[in-house]
């Protein structure tokens, strides 16, 4: 009886090791796939941005530091600035932290908000 149990234990250990190796292999392949799709998307993105910028005006650049500086200059919260631009306060926070980047349409709205003064911003926020 013990001999058979020992054989089963060894077989079970071998199976567990095989399963772990397969999981590592699947994880590595998924990571490689994500990297490949991300690379393809970034290669395609500049062409898409230039087409969108050509249709809607000049190409805009984005700076997280300038966004934060402008918001602090206006003295408003990220949520208020988000209302001004048409996004959530969390989105503004992520843009300022460099965790995300605005799309082309959002860059246009940011540029429009950048041209507003403190009083204009206060008036627009009161109107909403």
**Strand percent estimate:** under 5%
Overall average pLDDT: 85
- Determine the CATH topology of the largest domain: 434 Repressor (Amino-terminal Domain)
Structural class: mainly alpha
User: Could you say what the CATH architecture of the largest domain is?
Assistant: Orthogonal Bundle
Series of secondary-structure elements, N-terminal to C-terminal: HHHHHH
Shape: elongated
The largest pleated sheet is described as: none
CATH class designation of the largest domain: Mainly Alpha
| Assembly state | single chain
Termini separation comes to 80 Å
Strand tally = 0
Cα-atom radius of gyration: 26 Å
Helix percentage: over 70%
Low-confidence stretches: 48-54
Total domain count: 2
Query: What would CATH call the homologous superfamily of the largest domain?
Result: lambda repressor-like DNA-binding domains
Please give the count of helices.
6
How would you portray this structure in words?
By secondary structure, this protein is an all-alpha fold. It contains six helices and no strands. The chain has helices at 2-56, 64-74, 78-85, 89-97, 104-114, 118-127. The longest helix has 55 residues, at 2-56. The termini are far apart.
